[in-house]
Amino acid sequence: MSENTLFKKSYTRQEIEECFQWLEQHIDSLPTSMRLSPSINIPDVRHTVTTSIFKLRHQMGAKTIYSGQFSILCMIREKAAAAMEKDNQA
Q1: Does the model's pTM come out above 0.85?
Q2: Where in 1-81 does DSSP place strands (E)?
Q3: How many CB atoms sit inside 10 A of residue 19's CB?
Q4: Are 4 and 37 in contact (CB under 8 A)?
Q5: pLDDT for 15-47, tens place per residue?
Q6: 23, 12, 27, 24: which is closest to 67 by C-alpha?
Q7: DSSP structure string for 7-29
Q8: What is the pLDDT of residues 56-76, one digit of tens each?
Q9: Are 48 and 75 in contact (CB under 8 A)?
Q10: Residue 7 domain-assigned?
Q11: Separation of alpha carbons 43 and 19, rounded Å
Q12: How many domains does the chain have?
């Protein structure tokens, strides 16, 4: 079974912002849907990314962030980046 190796209990503000920026810069290149693991299927990736970033940015003002939600964004970024790199090599 695939394990989310990106899940951590806490992330630095820099890690969070870098992930957000990458996803926002590549939002139009993200696939419509994405299976992250056998148990995690994202049917509307762009909607999930935009709403999650909005909610997590709002939570950052309170100096807290839900690491589970953020780790999903990290997984989306990792999988999308790998697919884009593979496409560029073809």
Answers
A1: no
A2: 34-37, 40-42
A3: 21
A4: yes
A5: 889 999 999 999 999 999 999 999 999 999 999
A6: 12
A7: --S---HHHHHHHHHHHHHTGGG
A8: 888 776 656 677 888 899 999
A9: no
A10: no
A11: 20
A12: 1
